[in-house]
Design goal:
The complex is a heterodimer of chains A (103) and B (579). Chain A is mainly alpha-helical. Chain A has helices at residues 3-10, 13-46, 48-51, 63-102. Chain B is globular. Chain B starts with a helix and ends in a 10-residue tail after the last helix. Classes of the chains: A mainly alpha (103), B mainly alpha (579).
């Protein structure tokens, strides 16, 4: 990568915006996963009676089981959201930035 | 490649002949050199010699045959270093997603989570969840940036703008510790599993077979063969686990309510298995739960053989997609293992055919703690299905060991030999040659350590490998990508703090100090040290970096802009090979 291209990219407002948007999305989604997961872990650690209560009077299934499976499914969904956003929104912007810089 | 048929033949001989004279002589020589353990495992072998498990052997040989053909195919297409380390960067997103799942769904997570659920019920789910949530983090923070910045190892990324020597030594040390300990765990598991299933093959023979096969796969076929072994194994494992879960659910009339009530009725702890937030019998310990959670999540994101997979794909987009596919496969698989564990309580516990001694415990099985999933396959589909699942479990170990060996070998050849010793002046040919020698070396080390650790309590291995990965590789990698201020001094001091801190606290912790060394109550009362070590590493790396006023430190901070452009746009990233 030549210095000229680098400086062109560096000064392209689209690039600065891209970095900001992608970082925001990355860290927001990471925070969401951590919140979910550590919420689950903290319930296990400090409120086991909540996690272990059955989902209904006639059931043996504890609430924690649904929450745990929920965390797995939600993680897969958030992964999908990021891939969708990155492929659909960020990749075209990256292509534009690179094309503009190589002109 | 001309050695391939000979290797195959000798393996066939080893496998089929129950008491091959030659193999016995070789292996007992190896054993006596390494450990006082005898080649015969007394425990777990029933008094009467059971008939040879032909189903398992035929299916296992079929897998070995197919993978050796693939290895031959891959060997003819592996010419450059990029082919060898990164499969020519031609792996698609879906293929890599399968391979990621193959690398990650080890026998420990298949047999291990099922066994945890079988013994403790709900508690096993904590592991399933913890081992999955690392994946979104890998995607959001590292996957595509790793692809854009690196070449063959994650140390490429950390040393992108930092000093090559000290960074690569630190990264290689932590990678090798993780790889070698992970290898020991897998080798011991392989030996015990194969020996239990086919008692005519001794523990030592089983480990030697594993060692010989993975050396063949990796030295000849490199990353291409390794990737395809992973893909096939992932397909087999997902298929096998799905059939088992379907078998369990059809036995229970496709009602989860019935499955769980039946399990509660049969398990000796009854309703406690639905309330187990810690292993049954253990005291609740909030800090331990949190530390376990941290270790599982961030350890995943720091395993060198997992990170290496991102260099095999064509571009950042494929890296991204592969995590999505991988996460879906792994999440699905973990939900299946949970069903399998409960299914084993219903169908395997209390059955005289599987339980070691009904008068003592209705849970303890013949062949040891990792057997519930294996016996469940027998309860569902007889000898044929047992043979299939046994072959799948063994294939799983082979595939995971191959991936690990390649990751360890690239740390030795690419980081230590080519970058540190030869200072980047080694030719590609030399580097690949050193890599192949490292594969053979690591394979032999894994076999010898697997034999030496036969009778050892290896329960701490997961804690050890995941702790080092979570406390060293993961934080240093993320800091180097996202924090302009990180300097070589910060990364190196932080990295060694992670390595020494995790190992030190594990040694004085309950698993090693009390159970392995029998030194009495542990000095550090927690099994997982991550909750102390991870923040310490971040603090050390931060302070050592901001107080670094050296000229080189200043340059490293300035070089961040160029690194960021490449990480974000992929400009200058390693291209996919044309062939």
């Amino acid at each position: 990568m030549s210095l000229l291209i680098a400086s062109k990219i560096q000064n392209n407002p689209k690039y600065l915006q891209l970095v900001k948007r992608r970082d925001t999305l990355s860290w927001t989604l990471s925070a969401a996963v951590c919140l979910m997961y550590f919420g689950f872990i903290l319930l296990i650690a400090f409120a086991p009676e909540v996690i272990t209560q059955p989902i209904s009077n006639t059931s043996v299934i504890p609430l924690g089981m649904l929450l745990g499976v929920g965390v797995i499914v939600a993680s897969a969904l958030l992964t999908g959201i990021y891939v969708f956003k990155a492929n659909g929104t960020f990749d075209p912007i990256v292509r534009e930035i690179v094309e503009e810089a190589s002109k | 490649m001309k050695n391939c048929p000979a290797t195959l033949l000798s393996l066939l001989a080893l496998l089929v002949s129950g008491a091959s004279q030659a193999a016995d002589t070789v292996s007992s020589a190896v054993v006596s050199a390494v450990a006082p353990a005898s080649a015969v495992v007394a425990a777990a072998v029933p008094a009467a010699e059971p008939p040879l498990n032909w189903n398992a052997i035929v299916m296992f040989l079929l897998f070995v045959g197919v993978t050796l053909i693939i290895t031959y195919w891959a060997a003819t297409r592996t010419k450059t270093a990029t082919d060898f380390y990164a499969a020519g960067r031609g792996v698609t997103g879906l293929q890599n997603g399968m391979a990621i799942a193959g690398d990650y769904m080890s026998a420990a997570s298949f047999l291990g989570i099922a066994a945890l659920v079988y013994m403790n019920g709900f508690y096993g789910l904590i592991f399933s969840v913890g081992w999955l949530v690392g994946w979104p983090i890998i995607l959001f923070l590292v996957a595509e940036r790793l692809r854009n910045l690196g070449k063959y190892t994650y140390a490429d990324v950390v040393s992108f703008r930092l000093q090559q020597g000290p960074i690569r030594v630190m990264a290689a040390v932590s990678s090798l510790i993780v790889v070698i300990w992970y290898l020991i765990g897998q080798a011991v598991g392989a030996g015990q599993l194969l020996h239990t299933l086919v008692p005519q093959i001794s523990y030592v023979q089983a480990i030697v077979v594993v060692g010989a096969l993975i050396i063949t796969y990796v030295t000849f076929g490199g990353m291409k063969a390794t990737t395809w072994v992973q893909i096939i194994k992932a397909g087999l494992l997902l298929g096998g686990a799905t059939m088992m879960a379907l078998g369990v659910m059809s036995h229970e009339g496709f009602s989860f309510e019935k499955l769980f009530s039946d399990a509660v009725a049969i398990h000796p702890k009854h309703l406690d298995i639905m309330k187990s937030v810690v292993p049954i019998g253990a005291k609740a310990n909030p800090i331990e739960s949190i530390s376990l959670g941290l270790t599982l999540m961030f350890g995943t994101a720091g395993l060198p053989h997992i990170l290496m997979r991102f260099f095999t794909v064509t571009d950042a987009k494929a890296a991204r997609k592969s995590v999505l596919y991988g996460t879906c496969f792994i999440g699905f698989f973990y939900i299946l293992t949970f069903i399998i564990g409960f299914g084993a309580i219903v169908l395997v516990a209390n059955q005289p055919a599987y339980v070691a001694d009904l008068s003592k415990s209705i849970l303890a099985l013949k062949g040891g703690g990792s057997m519930p999933a294996v016996y469940l396959s027998h309860a569902l589909g007889g000898d044929f299905f047992l043979g299939f699942i046994a072959a799948v479990a063994f294939a799983t170990i082979l595939a995971v060991v191959s991936g690990l060996t390649l990751a360890g070998a690239s740390a030795l050849s690419h980081d230590i030999y080519a970058s540190v010793i030869k200072k980047g002046k080694a030719s590609e040919k030399e580097e690949v040659w050193v890599s192949k020698m490292s594969v053979i070396g690591l394979g032999v080390v894994a076999v010898l350590l697997g034999i030496a650790f036969e009778k050892q309590n290896v329960a701490y291995i997961v804690a050890l490998t995941f702790s080092i990965a979570a406390c060293t590789n993961f934080p240093i990698l993320v800091l180097s990508i996202f924090w302009r201020g990180l300097t070589t001094r910060g990364a190196v001091l932080g990295g060694y703090t992670g390595i020494i801190g995790s190992i030190g606290l594990l040694i004085i912790g309950p698993t090693v100090w009390t159970k392995v060394l029998a030194m009495g109550p542990a000095i550090f009362p927690y099994d997982f040290p991550t909750f102390v070590v991870l923040p310490t590493v971040l603090i050390v790396a931060y302070i050592a970096s901001i107080t670094d006023n050296s000229e080189s430190g200043k340059k490293e901070k300035e070089a961040y802009d160029a690194q960021l452009i490449r990480a974000e746009t992929g400009l200058g990233a390693e291209a996919a090979a044309s062939h």
